[in-house]
């Protein structure tokens, strides 16, 4: 494509968007044509980059933005409220799109409404390009590569992390929790619209709380298992029968009880408008943890994969998961789509299917580790 820019970042004036812009400014290769986009020129001037006017409520400006660049990266959420005009514009313009959504409803509705058009134009629509869901999507792919081909495969992801959310992330999570009916409707619509492989199956695996690898494993109701399962449906390498389980790994049972009770209370409060409004006032969008707090944050995901008589244990690890590493993942995803030789893909896809090892190599060079801990026959 002949476009003015290689990458445009929408949302640079927000907390995570600013970190992403700073990462691009520090790590973009010489000659990369990139710009920041938004409504407030004064907030964007601090980055010293070209600026593109963009208003998520104005479809005309979204179309102009999409037509100006090879890749758009957006941090503007909640995506279920603000995201669709840009997805639609990128699908029409044949422009690659990456975001940070963790909202299943948005993911499913965008597939139903825009996957077919994006397939026609060659646009690659890739959601969840941050801590949701790159460590799990690429970590599972890395694990599967160590297992035999053409056999049933089961992978468990065991997450441990330390950090705190920004205001924008917190608002997005509460919005998603407050819409259970809409989430269910969107899932059903997606299931009806998405063609499934005839000779293979790939889906999330949900188990009860149990012990493994020295931890209590608590199922996580996040978007990540759905992303991983979609990669399994897109990629033959995941075998004829693929299952993925996604868990928080906790050392002590009292902590498990407290965490389950806390999540239940949060989900219940999100359904009641007055309580939801109280929660939303706790953290304001645009706010986030200090640099010192982020420096103490970390994440570690251990994957246990089994198939064809082999067990493989791998690990993906990094620093501050919610912000610095998320900004890194989003920026490297955009750079990968703009600059690297990649498989021919189009429509709504995943990081594993669209970028896979190329993006993994970028992230390793940027400091995120992918390691093989053990390979055993059984």
Explain briefly what this protein structure is:
The chain is α/β, with parallel strands linked by helices. 44% of the residues lie in helices and 24% in strands.
Report the helical percentage.
40-55%
Oligomer kind: single chain
What percentage of amino acids are in beta strands?
15-25%
Alpha plus pi helix count: 16
Helix- and strand-based class?
A: alpha/beta
The profile of the biggest β sheet is: 8 strands, mixed
From the spread of the alpha carbons, the general shape counts as globular
Number of domains: 2
State the end-to-end CA separation.
Answer: 50 Å
Low-confidence stretches: none
> How many DSSP E strands?
15
Mean pLDDT: 92
Using only C-alpha atoms, the radius of gyration works out to 20 Å
Can you describe what's shown?
With 378 residues, this protein is an alpha/beta fold. The protein has two domains: 5-130 and 326-359, NAD(P)-binding Rossmann-like Domain (Rossmann fold, 3-Layer(aba) Sandwich); 134-320 and 369-377. Helices cover 44% and strands 24% of the residues. It contains 16 helices and 15 strands. The strands form two sheets. Strands 7, 8, 9, 10, 11, 12, 13 and 15 form an eight-stranded mixed beta sheet that branches. A seven-stranded parallel beta sheet has the order 3-2-1-4-5-6-14, sandwiched between helices. Strand 2, helix 2 (41-44) and strand 3 form a beta-alpha-beta unit. Helix 1 crosses helix 14 (324-339), helix 6 runs parallel beside helix 9 and helix 14 (324-339) crosses helix 16. The protein starts with a strand and ends with a strand.
């Amino acid at each position: 494509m002949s476009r003015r820019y290689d990458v445009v970042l929408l949302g640079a004036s927000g907390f995570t968007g600013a970190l992403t812009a700073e990462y691009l400014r520090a790590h973009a290769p010489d000659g990369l044509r990139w710009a920041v986009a938004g409504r407030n020129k004064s907030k964007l001037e601090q980055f010293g980059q070209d600026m593109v006017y963009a208003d998520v409520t104005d479809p005309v400006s979204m179309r102009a933005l999409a037509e100006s660049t090879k890749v758009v990266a957006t941090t503007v959420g909640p995506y279920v409220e603000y995201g669709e005009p840009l997805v639609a514009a990128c699908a029409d313009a044949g422009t690659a799109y990456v975001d940070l959504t963790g909202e299943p409803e948005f993911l499913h509705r965008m597939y139903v409404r825009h996957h077919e058009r994006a397939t026609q134009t060659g646009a690659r629509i890739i959601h969840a390009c941050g801590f949701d869901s790159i460590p799990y999507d690429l970590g599972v792919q890395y694990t599967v590569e160590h297992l035999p081909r053409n056999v049933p495969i089961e992978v468990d992801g065991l997450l441990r992390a330390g950090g705190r959310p920004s205001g924008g992330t917190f608002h997005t999570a509460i919005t998603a929790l407050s819409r259970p009916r809409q989430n269910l409707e969107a899932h059903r619509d997606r299931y009806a619209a998405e063609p499934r492989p005839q000779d293979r199956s790939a889906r999330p695996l949900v188990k009860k709380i149990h012990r493994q690898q020295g931890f209590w494993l608590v199922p996580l109701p996040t978007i990540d298992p759905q992303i991983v399962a979609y990669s399994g449906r897109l990629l033959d390498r995941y075998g004829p029968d693929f299952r993925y389980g996604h868990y928080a790994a906790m050392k002590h049972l009292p902590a498990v009880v407290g965490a389950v009770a806390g999540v239940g209370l949060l989900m219940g409060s999100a359904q009641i408008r007055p309580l939801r409004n109280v929660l939303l006032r706790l953290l304001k969008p645009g706010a986030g943890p200090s640099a010192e707090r982020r420096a103490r944050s970390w994440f570690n995901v251990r994957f246990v994969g089994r198939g064809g008589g082999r067990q493989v244990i791998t690990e993906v690890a990094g620093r501050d998961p919610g912000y610095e590493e998320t900004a890194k993942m989003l920026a490297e995803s955009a750079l990968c789509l703009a600059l690297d030789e990649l498989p021919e893909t189009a429509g709504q896809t995943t990081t594993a299917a669209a970028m896979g090892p190329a993006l993994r190599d970028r992230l390793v060079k940027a400091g995120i580790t992918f390691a093989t801990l053990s390979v055993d026959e059984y």
